[in-house]
Amino acid sequence: MxxxxxxxxxxxxxxxxDYRSSLPLVSPANKQRQDxxxxxxxxxxASAAASMAEMGxxxxxxxxxxxxxxxxxxxxxxxxxxxxxxxxxxxxVYRLFYDTIKGGDYRSREANVxxxxxxxxxxxxxxxxxxxxxxxEYGGTLDNRSFGGVQVSRxxxxxxxxxxxxxxxxxxxxxxxxxxxxVEMYTKHEMVDLVLIDGHAKGIIARNLVNGNIEKYAANAxxxxxxxxxxxxxxSTNAMGSNVTASWKAHKKGAMFSNPxxxxxxxxxxxxxxEYQSKLTLMSExxxxxxxxxxxSKKGDKRHPSExxxxxxxxxxxxxxxxxxxxxxxxxxxxxxxxxCDAGFGAGETGQSVYLDFEDxxxxxxxxxxxxxxxxxxxxxxxxxxxxxxxxxxxxYPAVHYTMGGxxxxxxxxxxxxxxxxxxxxxxxxxxxxxxxxxxxxxxxxDGYFVLPYTIGTYLSNEINxxxxxxxxxxxxxxxxxVSNKIDSYLTNDGKRTVExxxxxxxxxxxxxCGMSRNKKDLxxxxxxxxxxxxxxxxxxxxxGKKDTLNAELxxxxxxxxxxxxxxxxxRDALDRNESCGAHFREEYQTxxxxxxxxxxxxxxxxxxxxxxxxxxxxxxKEELLFDTVTPTQRSYK
Amino acid sequence: MSNKLNLTLKVWRQESxxxxxxxVDYSMEGVNPHMSFLELLDVLNERLITEGMDPIAFEHDCRxxxxxxxxxxxxxxxxxxxxxxxxxxxxxxxxNDGDTITVEPWRAKSFPVIKDLAVDRSAFDRIIQSGxxxxxxxxxxxxxxxxxxxxxxxxxxxxxxxxxxxxACVSSCKxxxxxxxxxxxxxxxxxxxxxxxxxKQRVLSMxxxxxxxxxxxxxxxxxxxxxxxxxISMDNISTMNKExxxxxxx
Lengths: 638, 250
Known about the structure:
The complex is a heterodimer. By secondary structure, chain A is α+β, with helices and mostly antiparallel strands. In chain A, 37% of the residues lie in helices and 16% in strands. Among the domains of chain A are: 266-401, Flavocytochrome C3, Chain A, domain 1 (Alpha-Beta Complex); 474-601, Methane Monooxygenase Hydroxylase, Chain G, domain 1 (Up-down Bundle), CATH 1.20.58.100. In chain A, a hairpin with an 8-residue loop joins strand 21 and strand 22. Chain A is globular and about 75 Å long. Chain A starts with 11 loop residues before the first helix and ends in a 14-residue tail after the last strand. Chain B is an alpha+beta fold. Chain B folds into two domains: 5-115, Ubiquitin-like (UB roll), CATH 3.10.20.30; 122-249, Orthogonal Bundle (Fumarate Reductase Iron-sulfur Protein, Chain B, domain 2), CATH 1.10.1060.10. Chain B contains eight helices and seven strands, in the order E-E-H-E-E-E-E-E-H-H-H-H-H-H-H. A five-stranded mixed β-sheet of chain B has the order 2-1-5-3-4. A two-stranded antiparallel ribbon of chain B has the order 6-7. The longest helix of chain B is centred in the last third of the chain and has 15 residues, at 235-249.
């Protein structure tokens, strides 16, 4: 099968403008007759639901949380990029595009990334108009800061709570449409299957998490905005509920899944403290603006950091990457930390951490300025570790944070299933093999506010003459029955293993063999381990409770079952990609000084996997990446 | 690693909204002081499942103190004894060996119990839907810098906007008032130029919706501010009252 990305023709800088002016429209009268289901209410889902309802569509929005305001976008700290050039430092749409393509190690589409950079400015305008309290200069204009992987200041922020403020902005726009009756909001509802009619996505099956009802919802199109799958590693910075289930159900119904092995490991997280650990806490990478990262230059040094003299400190990022120093992209910063710790130079009791030190920053700009910039992050660190980062350097270690891979989408953000769209983190489209800081918020809101509301018209304009689908169709009944049977099978399995313990086992396999660095031998071993784990899961899982009440274990069971299958695909993808690029580091493919060695001749493609059912192996399709404007070079931050 | 703790937990167990609830005692041994309070509940739940018992239901998601999902009173205080901290960020090193810790859901008529510690807070969403927004359609915004806002005003608006909607204020108020939550949103918009055109209607609608949901009135006790994990100030309630008066008198 040939994957057609439907990239418009023409010059890169005119593609989107020309396309937007020529794509089919749906008239206001017809919009009122079109129902759209949106699953997930984070930045992408809430902004899409609000924007499409404003345009006149009837939207049904779903979230598994008890309120749309709780989606995990809320936890994003650092900021959102936009090519406004307010700082007069030479920024432009082209530069943001170029930084994103280069940061992604030339594994994303030029046209999609250019469009993202193009609409970035509109996002800031929209959010300001909603009353999002961005940081300001004394003169009243918007403030910016710099972020990893770039040399301009284009990041807009709201203290260390940018995601929260942007999400509350989108949530307020969504709430307005709910009050106007244009969005029907279903909280505490989890999508448990996708319904296809004649090969088109025409609805979903959702489970009401409060009373356990299995409910059927029909629509003219379905949009997934269900976030990333970092929790496949058990420990990650994702929220406890973040999961792959909606995407995975769609994948099993025919939506292809791209670049599953591209997983971002964030360099500045609080290290693991014990085996009870349920999640990892990220601290914004904005800390790397003023903090300096170091380890002792002596192996196994157990001295308190204050006792290690300046001459015995190794500022390894500044040493290895003098041009970017502590501001190298995330993948590079993470691997460099792992390299030092694996070599025996790590800090702390476990030796699995490095220092992030603000002593120089406090000496040069004063404690008050540091507190104004990073106060809430310092407080958070102190709260968790019981240590004072104004006095003792913080200890950090990389943790799974973001997944660049996701459902394959074309330029219209439509998956390989007609009528099924994927926006935000759950699609694969814009970040290639590595995402730059402050670009996730940008992509979620770009997709939801400024891209999907237009591009969905290319599909819906063809639907206006068709008969309305209702949830009485036999496809809904079949899917409902299948879901029901599966839930019964979990509850009657009566095994010995808790869902949590199986999830932890999965996390170990993935982190040890398909984490920050990978090799063929370990990946092959992991493939067998996953197979065994899958058998153990289905024969020995124990799910307590009832199906008609709130039952968190039942919810988790179905999510972990999907994570196990996803883990298998991630390993296959990592095995196929015999090169190192971005976050995917294959130990066999590195330069003499330990940098990633890309292979553009053989691997300049989007790995796109087709599911062939439980019994057969998935099939790989390749979307070749064409670079008309930029020339892929080895990424250098030296 | 520092000393392990032996604790007794008294946890509110309630099967559903219409069933009778009660406290159940659980003894916990060898608790690692670096665990968070929710991780303590995780450990207990794993044990309960293995023993064939129903695990304790509680809301939680980000575990970083920002999503506002977690909601429980610990020893009678919303989110427990540490100021400016949600239950998910409360670590066990704040407790002593031998402690008995009481854990119960938010207690308020407008937040009915769903199960155990999980309550229904949809009333908060309905209050926001009644007017907690600026009516600006996507695409109709002027350039971000066309609306200058001085730094001090932006800071004050941010302080009000930092509310996470957890409901601790309601739970700790003797009147179960939602005034702190509602006023934070009204106050954010009252300070910003973007909020001005709809200010009058907003305060009237949101206050009316708050009353309709059955929340009590504010009698300036201040328990809300004391337990708010995000330090939302009671000054916002004064702002709300001022805006309300302005709206009904003009």
